[in-house]
Specification:
- Helices cover about 40% and strands about 25% of the residues.
- The protein has about 220 residues and is an alpha+beta fold.
- The protein folds into 2 domains: about 1-110, no CATH class; about 120-220, Immunoglobulin-like.
- The strands form 2 sheets. Strands 3, 4, 6, 7 and 8 form a 5-stranded antiparallel β-sheet that branches. It has a 3-stranded antiparallel β-sheet with strand order 1-2-5, with no helix packed on it.
- The radius of gyration is 38 Å and the shape is elongated.
- The N and C termini lie far apart (about 90 Å).
């Protein structure tokens, strides 16, 4: 089996290993069957390697320092650019042509039309309907179980709530409009003297007031 795998692979490990190897050869060359000239050859190889390796380390350290200095100067430059640009953008006299010339943000002067089909394709609001004595607390939106992440979708301005007494009605005429609400939750108050059963369904409304599809109905019992 050839002895080809004893030399370490990385330069750092090779440098440490070569120092030990050369020092041992220098101290024991006769016992190893080597001539003084061969021991000197090993020493010369070690010196040449060390010079090459130290040059690389110096360049590497210098490059790293240069990169860090560059990053610091870019951060300062960006901070200054933002400060100056903020002043320019705030001037009433600044024109869009000037903004384009600078390559900075140009305000969108023409609002993007709202696609009338988008609200129809959007899934209806989810809901969490919790009955209490004489009232029902209704959470609605994309994540009704967590109001911290339950903001309405961007295209929607509100949710419409419809109610039906006594369970899900046989036709749409049995649903009564309750409210159009932009923030969950909504509290539906009854103050009923007897237990009642009510059903709800919900739909999003886009920013132009166009309604989306209805959610599945939900039925709850409200105690007196």
């Amino acid at each position: 089996m050839p002895y080809t795998y004893f030399i370490p692979g990385s330069d750092e490990a090779f440098d440490d290993w070569f120092a030990i190897y050369q020092a041992y050869v220098a101290a024991n060359f006769a016992a190893l069957g080597l001539t003084p000239a061969e021991a000197l050859d090993v020493q010369t190889l070690k010196i040449n390697w060390s010079l090459g390796y130290s040059n690389v380390l110096t360049i590497k350290n210098t490059y790293q320092a240069a990169v860090e200095a560059k990053d610091e100067r870019r951060a300062l430059a960006e901070e200054g650019i933002r400060r100056i640009t903020k002043k320019i953008q705030a001037r009433p006299e600044t024109t869009d042509a000037q903004r384009e010339g600078l390559g900075v943000t140009v305000p969108d002067r023409i609002p993007t039309p709202l696609d009338p089909e988008k609200i129809l394709l959007h899934p209806p609001p989810l809901h969490l309907v919790v009955p209490h004595r004489g009232q029902v607390v209704i959470h609605f939106g994309p994540d009704p179980g967590n109001e911290n992440s339950n903001a309405l979708p961007d295209i929607c301005r509100a949710v419409r709530i419809f109610r039906a007494a006594g369970g899900v009605p046989a036709d749409v005429s049995g649903w009564v409009f309750v409210a159009e609400i932009s923030h969950s939750p909504y509290v539906d108050v009854f103050l009923n003297s007897q237990p009642i059963t009510v059903s709800y369904r919900f739909q999003y409304v886009d920013r132009l007031g166009r309604p989306g599809p209805f959610s599945d109905p939900v039925t709850v019992a409200v105690s007196a």
